Structure formats: C-alpha cells, structure tokens
Input
Amino acid sequence: MSGRIARAAASIVVALGLVGALAACTNDPLAEQYRAGDNKGYIAADGFRFVEIPEADRTDPIEFEGVLDSGGTTTSADYLGEVTVVNFWYAACAPCRVEAPILEEVNSELAGDGVQFLGVNLYDGAEASRAFAETYGVTYPSALATEDGSIKLAFAGQTPLSAVPVTLVLDRDGRVAARLIGQISEASILSSIVSTVVDEP
Output
C-alpha cells in the first residue's frame, strides 16, 4: 500500500510540474506563436532568435538621426516609405564579421524591391567603421553611435543592445516589424523576413 501511495504522490508532483511549466509558457510570446503554428518566432540551439511582429502589435515609428561614417548625416525620414533593415554592430565583434557578407548579400538581392539597409556602429570611429566595410564588402552606410549617441537611444526601447549583433526590420512606416538577435547564419532567414514585410499592403 505504501509503495502505491508513494508512486501516486510522485505522479502528482510530476503532473503539477508539467502544469507549472505550461503555465509559464503561456506568458512567452514565442511559445504562443509556436502553438499557433504561424512560424512567427524561432529560437536556435546557438541562441540566435527572431520574432516577427504582426502589424496590429507594432509600436510607434522609430525616429532617429545619426552621423554617417562616410560623412554627412541621416534621419529616419530618409527611410520612410521603404522597408529598412537596421543592423547594430562593431568591428571587434566576431559574429558581426561572420554575418556581414550575409547582410550584404540580402542588401544586394533586395535593393530594387524598396528595401534599404543601415548599419549602426556602436563603438568604433569613422576610420575603423569604413575599414570594416571595405574588408567585408559592405556597401550600405553605417551611422556612428560614438558621434551621436541619440541613435542608440532611439532604438534602446525596442531591443537589447548589450549583446550584438542585433538586426531590426522596420516597415514602411518606420515601425519595428521583426527583431533578429544574434548572428544571422543564412541569408535566406533575413531575406524571407524582409520579403514578408515588403509584401504587406
């Protein structure tokens, strides 16, 4: 009798643990998206993760301005009406070096489809930023947070910038439509997400 009671008690503990785990998942947007089967969120074994944000759930447009590593300035107004990919990086970041050619591949692929790319270099000066672009074949501009930190602050509420690389996809209105946190390993991942936003009415 005591053995059966012990086994029953253990089963109850396991069941309660599963219930608790499922309850915890209900507060996880990625878990909810997975259960919905819409493939809007993904977490890889290496920690890379992305979330696509439905139009109805997007926040206000991001307004920013910055000093470019090539000279001159840029503002969010320069990108309105087009889908914009904003990549946060710095030259000593090893994953940033790995994904740079991937970003450029997607930039070249979608350049004629109403898509623009903008880098935001978080720590380097203009010379180091330009040298990185030349080394890795990056043709799109980068703004320098070291010259004007307001561009970093403009995006700080949208994604953690303590660990890079981070990539945001903005819709035509300048709202964040997707977040990609970590190193992008395949061009098709970013291309698919950007193309989905391009196809929005």
